[in-house]
Amino acid sequence: MKNTKLTYCILILSIFMGQKTKAQDWANLNKYQTENTKLEPAGTSKNRIVLMGDSITEFWSPNDPDFFSGKPYINRGISGQTTPQMLIRFRADVIELKPEIVVILAGINDIAGNTGPSTLDMITDNIFSMAELAKANHIKVILCSVLPALDFPWKPNQNPAEKVIALNKMIKEYADANKITYLDYYSAMVNEQKGLKADYSSDGVHPNKLGYQVMAPLAEKAIQSVLSKK
To answer: If residue 143 lies in a helix (H) or strand (E), which one and from where to where?
Structure first.
């Protein structure tokens, strides 16, 4: 009986410690820590580009690997993340990698309330802070529009469509005012209901391979445009 109680206590303690560790790494700084240390020095990788974002960025690599093949593109997306989480890990996953350009695609999970309620001002404060951190460290910035969404499968009835439009307007205005390249995915992917075109997604939020293939030339054009201004 004593051994049973001891085993149970150890199990509960291990679960508690696991949850505590996860809570302590709220921004998931550990996810890319090992990969970051294995990267070649920035000077040996010409025109290194970091893609910073959430699941829409993270899932790009497995769904459309050709976009990354043979290019100095580094994917630093983490599924489910909101802009405050990205801001916390921005130094580790972007600045320390010393890229030429960072491509920031963020905000849809904030609208969904993944880490609590967020106003559009709160979202843009975090996005613009990332942009300013990058510029202060001599990293060029591309700010992306948020992709259209009519609803969230994991949190329905949020009516995000108009919030996405308003957020994109704020991002574009900031980009224009600060001479930052604005990458408009939204216009190429929106349907008549202000959602993501069905051909480009299976859940109305995340692009499928065809969706990423629509995004790829837009991203390439923006990246080449920024590089040409060196």
So the answer is: strand 140-144
